[in-house]
Amino acid sequence: MTDVTPLHEAHKSLKAKMGAFAGYDMPLYYNEGVMAEHEWVRAHAGLFDVSHMGQIILSGADTIAFLEKITPSSYGKLPDGRAKYTVLTNENGGIIDDLIITRIAEDRFFTVINAGCKQKDIDWIKANLPDSVNFEQLDDRALLALQGPEAEKALQHCLGIETSDMPYMWLWEKQLADDTDIYISRVGYTGEDGFELSVPADKAAVIWNKLLEHDDVKPVGLAARDSLRLEMGYCLYGHDIDDKTSPVEAGLSWVMGKKDNTSFIGSGHVMGQIENGVSNQRTGIRLTEKGVAREGAEILDARDMNKIGTLTSGGFSPTLKESIGQGYIESKYTDIGTKIFVNVRGRNIAAEIAAMPFIPAKTKSMKKQAA
Amino acid sequence: MTENLKYTEEHEWIRIEDGDVAVIGITPFAQDALGDLVYVDLPETGRKLSKGDDFAVVESVKTAAEVYSPVSGEIVGINDNLSNDPELIKKSFDEGWIVKIKMDSPDEIAELMDKDSYAKFCEEQDH
């Protein structure tokens, strides 16, 4: 049984090419295609339906202690409205999901989880949930992402929301002119300035259409969402990170709250890796010859052609006009510029270790601007 | 011109030149499914193919698609222009062909679809 989002009819009327993603029938691209959509987001603003993602509220006096048990991050000093990227870890320090957790009030946190992990995350959270923390799934809400340099202007123009003094990784609760309550977060998965709007499901289509009326806003599908995030070196769950990779191997140790954090599930494993190092690390690569290398391609040492890693994501970068990717590579080969080969269907394509993000992020400062 | 083309279920078009040379490309249906093309992995001339062998890979932003030989024979020509401009595949048959194969048995062509049956096949695929 395939699920649909509250915007399914809108996608069909836009003649989107639909495809299955995490059990949902989702728009992969619209009539202009992936490349045009990708470039549009980098130059203007793209509107994405990401309502397949899960939205959760955790609340109650012990919520911080609970969050510090299920993730390696710290929340005590987080001001109301501030969002944090983090991971859920299992007993072995593996990543159950990556997610953004936002403090919306003293003991109330809003969380967005990956569509493909929704049930797994919910089961995990519930299994660990103390009586003193409330779990609420926001099934009746849609999630729209508006991303690109013109996103701020479009939001002001179409919905009357002025965000010029909203820092990156911040959430505001807002009321639209018709009293619709929305959460607006300055976050994204593209590297551009942009927002995610959590809106009531029955208002999603109206808001979607209102934003699309703006000349700078076009609908963008999941295919371009993937190429945009790849250029930023962001992780795609189930590919670049999973239950078997730890935050340390994934290069996500920065989500840790404290250096000597032993309060979270799997902390023993994670702390051991921080102390002793890891043998493989998530690393960026760029092809220096023509070709495209995708997930699963073997990475070879350029000197002796021995296998040193595997690509977990890869594709053509519409911005750089060359192929890029990320994968897990033996730690001693991860210096930027190290020459490697990527084996694609038996052909060895020259490549090198590259820094991520592949292009600079254009996100706003996380600091509040002085008035 | 298109009246003389043959088609496969893998969405290749085949034009016969000089009686026994099959010129092969991919149809608008396949082009549309792939989207923006970014690279074509071309074979070498001289390679012998059996019917059903894959001989090239067309890469788009989203995905990679193998191209299968609808006939047995030897590759006698490749369209080198595609390595610099993969989007040529979508232009005309004269510009967008991928390989030329000298067929071992030109009779194999008879098994392929003509324009009308291919159109019908595509229609069914869409549903």
Q: Sheet bearing the most strands of chain B, described? A: 6 strands, antiparallel
Shape by Cα distribution of chain A: globular
Share in helix of chain A: 10-25%
The name CATH uses for the topology of one domain in chain A is Gyrase A, domain 2
Strand proportion of chain A: 25-35%
Shape of chain B: globular
Q: Count the helices of chain B. How many?
A: 4
Secondary-structure content class of chain B: alpha+beta
Strand order within the widest beta sheet of chain A: 10-11-12-9-3-13
What layout of secondary structure does this protein have?
The complex is a heterodimer of chains A (371) and B (127).
Chain A: H1 8-13, E1 17-21, E2 24-29, H2 33-43, E3 45-49, E4 54-59, H3 63-70, E5 83-89, E6 95-105, E7 108-113, H4 118-128, E8 134-137, E9 141-147, H5 151-159, E10 171-175, E11 181-185, E12 194-200, H6 204-212, E13 217-219, H7 222-231, H8 267-276, E14 280-287, E15 298-301, E16 307-317, E17 322-330, E18 339-344, E19 347-354
Parallel strand pairs in A: 3-13
Antiparallel strand pairs in A: 1-2, 3-9, 4-7, 4-8, 5-6, 6-7, 9-12, 10-11, 11-12, 14-17, 14-19, 15-16, 15-18, 16-17, 18-19
Helix pairs in contact in A: 2-7
Chain B: E1 6-7, E2 12-17, E3 21-26, H1 28-34, E4 37-41, E5 48-49, E6 54-60, E7 64-68, E8 73-78, H2 81-84, H3 93-96, E9 99-103, H4 115-126
Antiparallel strand pairs in B: 1-2, 2-3, 3-9, 4-6, 5-8, 6-7, 8-9
Describe the structure.
The complex is a heterodimer of chains A (371) and B (127). With 371 residues, chain A is an alpha+beta fold. Chain A has helices at residues 8-13, 33-43, 63-70, 118-128, 151-159, 204-212, 222-231, 267-276, and strands at residues 17-21, 24-29, 45-49, 54-59, 83-89, 95-105, 108-113, 134-137, 141-147, 171-175, 181-185, 194-200, 217-219, 280-287, 298-301, 307-317, 322-330, 339-344, 347-354. In chain A, strands 10-11-12-9-3-13 form a 6-stranded mixed sheet, sandwiched between helices. In chain A, strands 14-17-16-15-18-19 form a 6-stranded antiparallel beta barrel. In chain A, strands 5-6-7-4-8 form a 5-stranded antiparallel sheet. Helices cover 21% and strands 35% of the residues of chain B. Chain B has helices at 28-34, 81-84, 93-96, 115-126, and strands at residues 6-7, 12-17, 21-26, 37-41, 48-49, 54-60, 64-68, 73-78, 99-103. In chain B, strands 1-2-3-9-8-5 form a 6-stranded antiparallel sheet. The interface between A and B is medium-sized, with 21 and 12 residues.
